[in-house]
Amino acid sequence: MLKATLRSFFAHKGRLLLSALAVLLSVAFVSGSLIFSDTVSRTFDRLFASTAADVTVAPKKGINERLPTGVVRTLPVELADRIGSVDGVKATHIGAAVENITVVDDKNDPVGPTTGAPTIATNWNLTDRSPVKLTSGREPSGPGEALLDKDTADKKKVDIGDTLTVLARPGSFKVEVVGIATFTTTNPGAALVFLDTPTAQTKLLGRPGVATSISVDAADTVSDATLKRRIATELGDAYDLRTADEQAKSAAAQLGGFLDVIKWVMLGFAGVAVLVGIFLIVNTFSMLIAQRTRELGLLRALGADRRQVRRSVLTEAVLLGLVGSTLGLAAGIGLAAGLIELMGLLGMNLSAAEMVLGVATPVSAYAVGLGVTFVAAYLPARRAAKVSPMAALADAEVAGVGRPLKIRAIAGSVVGAAGAAALAGCVASERTATASSLLGLGVVLTLIATVVAGPLLVRPVIRVLGGAFPKVFGSVGRMSQRNALRNPRRTGATAAALMVGLALVGGLSIASASMTKSFDDQIDKTLGADFVVQNSNFMPFPQEITEKVKGVDSAGTVVRQRFAPLALSLPDGKRVESTASGYDPRLDEAAHITYASGDTTAALAPDSIAMDRRFATEHKVRVGSVLPAEFAGGQRARLTVGALTDMDQSGGPGMEGGLFMGLATAEKYLPGGQEAALYVNAKSGSDVQELRKGLETALDPYPQVQVRDQADYKELIRQQIAVMLYLVYALLGLAIVIAVLGVVNTLALSVVERTREIGLLRAIGLSRVQLRRMIRLESVVIAVFGALLGLALGMVWGVAVQQVLALEGMTAFAVPWGTLVAVVVGSVVVGLVAAVLPALRASRMNVLAAIAHE
Which membrane topology describes this protein (predicted)? Predict the structure, then answer.
């Protein structure tokens, strides 16, 4: 049996190749994501381990700092003397560093990275653990000098002697580049500007005598943990103390968020590849077994039992999985290398020579590859085992042609009803967490139900889709329609591969279109200012920018916005961490707020706070409630609820509850914050475009901020949502690639299966052109069937997703009809492309050899 299995496998290797490609893609994404994340983790683990001080003393971390406030937490430098007196301390080093500043050259072009990595300004304090060393020029001395890292200098063409402008929180200042520092470890992608310590304290932190951290070197005989305990005894619990190991783990955890995004995106691609690949493999093995009915019957007649036949088919699947997994692992290494190169273009200097191939990667690769093929081939293997020895004497098939679909109908109906109930529960739910859980369950169940019951829809739907074929294409059209109807199971399985991808695209396209429309409506409804001045990456900006805006002649009302992270203790016993916005008293001139109770005056009153009505109802809050609050800086307050809003939104990520207060209250409990946005109206009698021109002129030296009107703001939101759409389209592309492989495989095997039939058709006058047209039409009708099934399912999912979004305030519903129509047209193209090779092969058959084929 083993010899027979191996001969069968190698005899059909060409037919199994496309299935192996599906396995390859699945394994490549899994192994590539693991190799890339392991490589980045290992690289940065070495960086953090080599640069972290034995003990680091820093200010306490604040509450819910997801949204930046502009406040720089500091500690007095006198602590260094107290720490230095602790037994076991070898040396202390003062750190004065701030992130996400802006540095521009003499042409006013940003010097820092534009890919999301920070620009960091810090004091020059070279130690054995410094990540850089001075390689040209000299150290900075005095307020007008600075060093720049070599990677940034090379990329931005900055030389020693050039002048840069640093835009920091206390104000902007100019420096001359007097030296270049080169990274001795991996450059994480940031730009580094080094100043001398007094300059860093005054120009970056706003005053002398303060630091952002104190690094401590331990004596040779003292462990980091012991030294940390001794310092904690000296300082108490007012500061955050971390050993080198703890500091490295904390930095790695922050990096983990970035890695998780990449890993989950790639695993999402792997999941789609696995799911779609299963359909392809099931179809391939089902058709191969159908074509080998006589062969299997002969094996049974010679004494092979059912288990041996089933084991033979599963062995072929395992061999396919081994080949696909091995090639997929190799492709995954290439994919990881490509990602490493991409990170290099974005400024993160990783080395492909240091690529990490851990034990978990090949184990996962082969587990996925072998698992997919084994699971996919199991049902066809069971069917093969049921072949009777008498099948050796006849042209019998086990493909299920003509077998009733009663079991599928029952199973599909039961699972579909459960899925529909879950989606209905999602729509009816008033809690986001519950609705999201029911949505996930409903999506899985309805997908399974559609796959199971898909063959039931083949005959009625394809009769409609191909109804015009006989009239337009004559007998060729009629035969193509009947070929697609010949085996509903096969047609359903082939179309299912395309259906999965298009269902995802349909659902997520509706979700993104609904989000876009919701934001557009919300901007139209709430934004009352002529212009919004904001940082391009939503970071706070220095006070001098606010003064520049106020100094524009045509500027009238200028309303400032700041973020204030806080934790509220609510009447229902819960403690919610969120971020409130602080506004100037003239907020009504910049925004249109609908109140359920109270008004803007009450909302912005001293020690008052406003919140969304639904959030208040959920937590048993009403106007007049007094809520204990703790702010990010440790300040405590008791805030009175002055107003409840009814704005169909409860806030975005990190801003649960739609909280806002007066700017004076935010400054009282979180002093030193910076503006996150300015809402500007034109002065009475001034032209709006004149105001825009004045603002852009005044803010020309500050490239980090932008002036936006309503249309600009909407475009910004669309661009952010478009990132999700790009992922959707990439998933669509992957699904289409595998679906094309599935259709090609099905048609190719179908051509082999119908060799005699094709020979007879050619013998009675069917031309090569007509034969190719017949196969193309069959392919197109299958692809369109899968597309319509997927889009119908996707629209149901999209409606449910929109209901979940509505619970977060995004109540508008929109269907991107242009995208959906383009998908249907694209499915026709997919069908035509998939049919090219099978049609060409069929048309080149020798007529006499085809008629004589068994």
Answer: Multi-pass membrane protein
